Amino acid sequence: YREKFGRKSNATTVPQVNLSGWISQHVSRRRLPQRIATAPKVVMKLDIEGAEFHVLRMLLKSRVICSLDAVVIEWHLPGGKNDFDDPRLGATRGFRNKFESKVAALDQLGCRVRLIDMDDECT
Prior knowledge:
Layout lengths: L1 H4 L13 H10 L14 E4 L5 H11 L7 E4 L15 H19 L6 E4 L6
Parallel strand pairs: 1-2, 2-3
Helix pairs in contact: 3-4
């Protein structure tokens, strides 16, 4: 950080969580009280600065993405950039289209997750 921006960083260490495992444990296996006629919707917002490619692959591979009703995604270029003039954005769109086609294939197995694009930093 110092070399790149010329100023000191206040780095913070945070614990990592295997999101596929967490969703499997806390969402897929949850038990709702019998008095609830309709299960509540489960929506996940994914804004992880370029890491969404890896995380989405894992969610798809494990199929726990099917435990979610919707995933709101803010797409970034690898490295966290969100510069839509960057020529590498084509790769981002290509990944997104490929990912959507795989989710659509899971639809045949009863997976009804909805993908929603959102950029909450646009003005």
